[in-house]
Amino acid sequence: MLINQFKLNKWIFFAVFLLALFSTATQAQTLSLKGKWRFKIDAKNEGLKAKWFSTILPESVNLPGSMAENLKGDEITLKTQWTGSIYDSSYFYNPGLAKYRVANNIKIPFWLTPAKHYVGVAWYQKDIQIPANWNGKRMVLSLEYPHSETRVWIDDVEIGMQYTFVVAQNFEIPSNIKPGKHTITLQIDNTIKAINVGKDSHSLTDHTQGNWNGVVGKMELQAGSPIYIEDVQVYPDLKRKMAKVKLQLKANGNSSSSGNITLSASSFNTKQLLNVKPLTKAYSITNGTGTLEIELPMGDKIATWDEFDPALYRLNVVLLSKDGKKDEKQVQFGMREFKAVGRSFEINGRPVFLRGTVNNCEFPLTGYPAMDVAAWVRIFKICKDHGLNHMRFHSWCPPEAAFIAADLIGFYLQPEGPSWANHGTSIGNGRPIDQFIYDETNRMSKNYGNYASFCMMAYGNEPSGKQVEYLTKFNEYWKAKDSRRIYTGASVGGSWPIIPNNEFMVRAGARGLDWGRRPESMSTYAKQIEQFSVPFVAHEMGQYCVFPNFKEIKKYTGVYRAKNFELFEEDLKDHNMADQAESFLMASGKLQALCYKNEIEKALRTPNYNGYQLLSLNDYPGQGTALIGVLDAFWDEKGYITAKEFKRFSNSTVPLAKMPKFVFTTDELLAAEVEVAHFGKQVMQDAKLSWTIKDETGLVLSKGNFAPKTLPIANCIQIGEIRFALNQLKKASKLKLEVVINGTEYANDWDFWVFPSTLPPINTEVYYTTSFDDKAKEVLENGGKVFLNAAGKVVKGKEVTQTFLPVFWNTSWFKMRPPHTLGIVVDPKNPALAEFPTSYHSDMQWWEIVNKTQVMNLEDFPKEFKPIIQPIDTWFLNRRLAMVFEAKVGNGKLIVSSTNLSAYLKGVPSAQQLYYSLQKYMVSAQFNPKFEVAFNTIKDLFETPSKQQFETFTKDSPDELKPKPKTNK
Question: Among 282, 610, 681, 682, which one is most buried in terms of CB atoms within 10 A?
Answer without folding.
Answer: 610
